[in-house]
Design a protein that fits this description.
This protein is of the alpha/beta class. It has a domain of about 190 residues: 3-Layer(aba) Sandwich (Rossmann fold), CATH 3.40.50. The chain contains 15 helices and four strands. The protein has a four-stranded parallel β-sheet, with helices on both faces. The protein is globular. This is Sulfotransferase.
Length: about 300
Amino acid sequence: MEWPKERAVVQNHHQDSTAWDGFKFRDDDIIVGSWAKSGTTLTQQLIGQLITLGDPNFVSNDASPWWDLRCLPPPAREAVEHQTHRRFLKTHLPTAALPYDPRVKYIYCVRDGRDTVWSLHHHHASVTDLWYQVINETPGRVGPPIPRCDPDQRQYFLDWLRNDGGVWYPYFSHVRSWWNVRHLPNVMLVHFNALITDLPSEARRIAAFLGISVPEDKWPAILEHCSKDWMRANPDKIGSMFGAFWQDGIKDFIFKGTNGRWADTLTAEDCAEYEAKAKQELGADCATWLGGKGPLDAKAYPAK
């Protein structure tokens, strides 16, 4: 089980994988990846709290920018170079487009595709005109602009399913790429279901993976600052961009944080189509894990 040796180039309205060209890793860097809307922000917040042992004023989203976001402002990149705390950066790239360094810890967040798209639809429907302007009009975009959100949630899902990520970027190959490296010692796959059903246990598992020793008296503050209520009530402690790009700020970006909201909209045939596609694209074990129907620790599944 190996990381792809040849790097692919991924470029679209959001992503530019060449942003990683020449990046100088430090020995203890952390990369937080996901397709999207799969617990990435919560994981960033958790890592920031683990690193600072519960500092409520540490702004995790600003400290760990989306490095391959093509319109990331240069000052955000420059700030990372000068950080003195343990660095952690966000990516939405598949492994084939991301550089690998054995000194770095990689955490990949994943969620059942139906829940991902339901969260994504609200995310997309709630963005501001400024968001479209920045994403579509920043020079250097490759491919078509991202269109306005289809208000029909079911059709939005079906377009995503039948067109491999819809207007965003490929989904199943993205998940598969990370699943295929799950047994590397510096890779951890984190399932959204584990984050929302037992955050204390998952937080300890992530801390152990990162080699962070947390005094017992620090855990209450760390976990409080990672709760949905605390994060929604303190947007300035999470990131600086929410108010400009989402109509209701962080309340749109961090919305329900629940699963199964698609159940009253998708038909049995829709779900069967999705599950068949997941099994075909990912294989039985990965599809089971993705759907949250088996062990949530990806390393519990044998390498093949």
